[in-house]
Amino acid sequence: MRNNRGSSLILVIICIAFAGILGTTVLVNSTANRDMKLVDEMAKENFYQTESGLDIFLANLSYMSEKVMEDAYAYVLTHYSSDNDTLLKAQVKRNLFYELTGSPYSDNAEALVKGELLKKKDGSLKGTLFDGVDPDVFGTELRLLNSDSLKAVVDGDDIVLKGLSVQYQENGYETKITTDVRVKVEFTRLDVEKPVTISGKFMDYSIITDKNLLVSEGGSKVSGNVYAGNSIVADNSGVFTLEASKLIAGSDVRTERGGKIDISGSSGHVEVWTKNILTVRDVTGATGGQSIQIKGADCYVADDMTIGAENSAVSITGNYYGYTTVGGGVTAADSSAIIINSGKSTLDLSALNTLWLAGRGSLKVPNVYGGDTSASAYREIMEGETVSYKGNQLAYLVPGECIRKYGHNPLTKAEVDDLGGNIVDISVEFGTNGKMTLAKYVASVPCEVVPVRFLYEKEPLYYVYLKFKTAAEAQDYFKRFSEVNQSQLDDYAEVLDLGEVKLPDGDKIQTSGTVLRVNGEHQITDVVSGTIDSGAAFQKQSELKQKFSGLVAMLDENYNGVPGSSLVNSIIRMSELPAGEVHLYFDKDMKKVDEQDLDGYEVIVANGDVAFDKSFKGIVIARGKITMQGNEFSGMMLATDDITLRNVDVTGGSSFVKDLVDKNPSLQRYFTNYPLPAGDGEGEKEAAVRNILVTYENWIKN
Predict the structure, then answer these.
(1) In this structure, are strands 219-223 and 173-186 parallel, antiparallel, or unpaired?
(2) CA dihedral for 88, 90, 94, 100, sign (positive or negative)
(3) How far is the C-alpha of 446 from the C-alpha of 439, rounded, in Å?
(4) Given pLDDT bands bounded at 50, 70 and 90, which one contains residue 195?
(5) 20 to 30 Å CA-CA from 61: which of 190, 496, 540, 623?
(6) What is the mean pLDDT of the chain?
(7) What band does 683 get if pLDDT is binned at 50, 70 and 90?
């Protein structure tokens, strides 16, 4: 038997060696794992340090953006717009781009970010976009790699900082992050209408248009209040009949080409507020009759009533107030007179309780007679009349007897040159039914020479007009002139075929100038002098002017704020209008339904023009024109442009319009007087919050 003691020893040695190898391997692996974990921890720490620098940058940029938003929001509150979202976004973009770059904003602009926002010259970080980073670390361990080339770029509604690159290095470890930073103003709407909500009762109106209410081709009747930012016009033989308690026209109430207007009170009384009442001469030469009849009214006219069309008939009952901003008109711009510039026309004011006219007419002499009036220059001559007749304009020429040497008016250029500046002899007596002189009435320079050329004539004639000391002297002159030259004025009236002019009794007339009655035989039967006290007139005119301004701006005569450019924009949230045209339907109980209910209501909301020819009961809102042909309309129309009626019968919806809106949040969203409903107006969704979002994009590490 062999001896095995040596093999056992070898086996033990092998086992010990194997155990040692295993132990060494475990030890080596453990050391490697520890080193790897240490490296990973250092790398993560390095990355976090890099990212923390970016987070501080983002926080400071967000703070800057929010401050810009606050300033822009305050701006929007004081500069109301029909689309506040757009205005706010534009203001934030503009201000933020300037804050970041110091350069003016423009679409697609780009500019370097100001160096002082990245690092101060003294090394301080206070007030920079890296304020909050340890100053000892910034610029050493943490570095902005493109401080001299970082750009801000306008990208649509956003601003983007392109390629922001930050690096952090410590203990031999390094991390670099490059990213774009986008600043976005994000919200769906901004409800800032409260400061400018309409103060007048707009739901009492059947028609509200920022431009013109046009009635043509046939007859249209409106029962309900009417507002037109510009004009109310009956044209092309259109007949407009209105029954209302209030009519407001920012520019004029007028007829053209055979149009007729008949206004009366819905309950026996109507207020008419406008700047002018006009019948307009047809430039084609047509002489078809035009008429304006206003019954039971308080008529407030800020400028003139002018009868310019042949065969016109104008009649007003109630009270008539013609006012200006001064105590008596001197020029056409500040007059408040009644001007009759056409023959065969009748003016009947005999049934007025009050005829109150604070201004006087002025004679506008063109440099070319018979030409296009729009291309002709004018000289204005002061008149003494408050109710001015076309034929009487000749009374303001210097009488021929008073022209030195030549004894006639007008003069030729040679005659004017011969007389030099000494044309008029103010001491000469003149008159056919008595005698008077100019001395009492004219200014120190007694005349104004106006060259006038008739169309197709090469050389003008020189008309010599009187120049009065004061407007009161002009009135006194005309009254005396009408006494000593009555037969001459009667001749003028007959030649011009002046129609009858009927005025109320003398105690009902308060004017700042003379008024004349003319009978059916073209004879002046009475001359009434002005009786208005200029001080009292000034106060009354200031009050009426303020009321008219408030009515035009906000349908409220007590409103004294700054008028906007659009009443409809003050009533309607233009930012809520759809892209096209939307029809909403409601049943007879005013509940919203999916399809039209013949016994219910319809609402049309359009971001453009609307035209229809069906019977309608409800509300039409248009950011554009509304045109209706035939049939009946009951409710309210609102348009930023013209509203045209052709053979339409309109009844105001004051009995149901407010209830319809009150019961339906889906309609309240369109009206600034109502809080903006959440979501789609039915309350299912929360309205988005306005906010500044600052986000990374195109993010790259190392």
Answers:
(1) unpaired
(2) positive
(3) 9
(4) very low
(5) 190
(6) 83
(7) very low
